Amino acid sequence: MGSTSARLFARVTAAPAAALTAWLLVAFPLLLADVLTPLTGALLGIPAVAVVLVAVFRLVPALPGEGDAGRGLPWWPLALTALIAAAFAAVQLGYHSEILVIRRDPASYAQYTSWIAQHGSLPIPQQRDLIAGDHPALVYGSLAYYQVGDVIWPQFLAGAPLVYTVGHWLGGITGMLVTPPVVGALGVLTFGGLTARLVGPRWAPAGALLLAVCQTQQWISRSTYSEPVAQVLLLGALALAFDALTRRVRLGGWSRWHTLAGAAGLVFGMGLVVRVDALRDLLPVVAFAGLLLLARRGQALPLLGGLAVGLGYGAVAGYGLSRPYLEHLSASLNPLLAISAAVLVCVAAGVALLWRRGVPRGDRPSWLPAAAAVAVVLVMAGLALRPLFYTDLGHGDEATAAYIGQVQEIENLPQNPDRTYYEMSLYWVGWYVGLSTVLLATFGAALLVRRIMQHRAQQWVLPAMVLSWTVVTTLLRPAITPDHPWASRRLIVLVLPAFILFAVWFTAWLARRVNTDSVGGRAWRGRAMSATAAAVGIGVMLVPTAVTAAGVMTYRSDVGSVAATKKLCDAIPPDASVLMVDGVYGGYMQLVRGMCGVPVAGLSSAEPERDVARIIEEIEQRGRTPVLAASQPRRIIPHISPDTPVRHPFDVHTTQDPSTLMKPPSGGWIFDGDVWIAVVP
């Protein structure tokens, strides 16, 4: 491959993160200003993305490879990596879910997206004046939607909904639902680019394929989860940081390398606009910037500056648009904020104390690199042995414990609802990428740490810091409901890519080591041995990964929900005010409010017959049509006259994601979605 395609490979794989960041930089202020519309998005977003992509194609250097600027490398790594990403997108588009009824996060994000795509503003008005005012029996909040005063705030951060809003603008509900497969494919492409930078361009297709086949990567890319967006941003930030550090520049002045460092920091920081736990993942970036300062590297200050801007966006996203959610997370968020502040103080103090001495030597004493490598193996061994002597208990939530008890009963497991299964976290990784990948990654990480401390792999310092920190902290405490595939969400942004990346690097190292006959007439033998080692290494990783992935290849989740939503909305008069008279409001209230566009409230009453009659009267006095909704017709019939028809417009009986605790998920469970309504004449 000539230098032209070496540059193209680097720039194509850096473009997704840069484009998403440019869009979020523009779209988020528009949402804050309540003016997010297709027109404003197009007028400001398209030029912003175009400018950033042009900058990427001008600034990002060629991939490192054979010869100067990558000359001598073939075209096939780029073509094959792109083909894998395209095939991934096609498969996930074919299997995309239709999750709109709120039970867990994807529908919450879908309803969030639908609201801002149509209204361009937050918070969501309750419209209680169109129902029954301040009647004490009415509730306006529901699952993932907080009732605060006379408005409603969605639970999560705005980053992923802002990205999926583009799909909604282009194709309505279906357009929104098919956007995650595209973003997931961009994650595969970005990971291929990171593999090309850190392992070598010829290994990029292997890394992309292993991630693409992984069950969790496929699963999260079929629904409106936030993880695909976060993955593109954080993996892309690592790639841009690699590019920024390919040249050594001193403090002061400005160059393309400073610009790339600032861009990398910004992309890192924008991860906080998507997910709160990105704050934990970014702590090593601060420490690394301190090392750059001690090394008098000019990229340090732009990296910190870009990171600060991105984190500022994230702080506003959290405390400006998702404060009830952050308050709900306060038990874990407040300690994380304290730890973050401590890291900042420690890094600043360390830089001040070591400013004259420079970066500490990692190879002094001489035994330290080997000891660090042994420590990596011991940490992984400890995580592997943890279930033998420790059982983690305590969800901190009664509802979660009750659900885990139900799953244990279904799977015929010992009843222990308080068990979190966190001690099994390394085994979760083994389910999804195979034990062979875990072992190869452990050896690869150990060897890389040794080489880094010997100053032989400096390009790995930041990736190793970020990935190893995230792996250890996540596996120690995943902090998620432990049923699968749900719990695997916590692994897919950086943990599973980290294991794949370290394992591919170690396989590449082994392939080079067995090539002992590199010159002379027997050079072909060395090349054959190297190719065999590479093929065996990739095969032993790919086969178990593919076997587990088969578990999600047999169903689509919640199919029929889009058509049922349209039927439900058509059945509700445009001048209706809807009262949901039983617990169905938890999952359907925001669907009715946001997708059907009518006021809705739920009933919480000790005397439902009296309160329903009064609320119907209040609705009629406001000149609107009362509509009662429930999960079963018997919940409606006591409140209407005998000649009022009860209809069943939302009638979905299909497959949903399963829940498993001690084995990888395979096949789906049954989903029954029912909404009955009666239009009160």
UniProtKB/TrEMBL annotation:
It comes from the Bacteria. This is Glycosyltransferase RgtA/B/C/D-like domain-containing protein. The chain crosses the membrane at residues 43-63, 75-95, 169-191, 257-273, 279-295, 302-321, 333-355, 367-385, 426-448, 460-480, 492-511, 532-555. Keywords: Membrane, Transmembrane, Transmembrane helix. The keyword rRNA-binding does not apply.
